[in-house]
Amino acid sequence: MAEPKLSSIKDNRWSLHGMTALVTGGTRGIGHAIVEELAEFGAAIHICSRKQDDIDKCLEEWKKKGFNVTGSVCDVKHSHQRQKLMETVSSIFQGKLNILKLYFYV
């Protein structure tokens, strides 16, 4: 797990350790940047994307950085895929989701 971005080791007000996040569209652009920031502050994150290859590439990169990130395929335009995503996230995070970031690629 990556060390949180803190100006002082004693200053924990910005720590996200113990927090969970779901970031849709987390493999590119703004979504990718949000995952990086949340992970640097210690959050456990689940991402989704429409392409497994994109997810695998990002997960490999984040694993090397020591980030706690998981991912699954989901096109959030489809309700049955959103339902499955929420079941997956609930299982991974034992029903606890602190941060939700939705992003739709058009």
UniProtKB/TrEMBL annotation:
> What InterPro entries does the record point to?
NAD(P)-bd_dom_sf, SDR_fam, TR
* Keywords on record: NADP, Oxidoreductase
Q: Does the keyword Acetylation apply?
A: no
Q: Which domain of life is it from?
A: Eukaryota
Coiled coil stretches, renumbered = none
Q: Name one GO molecular function term.
A: oxidoreductase activity
What the entry lists under Gene3D superfamilies is as follows: NAD(P)-binding Rossmann-like Domain (3.40.50.720)
The record's family statement is: Belongs to the short-chain dehydrogenases/reductases (SDR) family. SDR65C subfamily.
Could you identify this protein by its name? Tropine dehydrogenase
Species per Swiss-Prot/TrEMBL record: Vigna unguiculata (Cowpea)
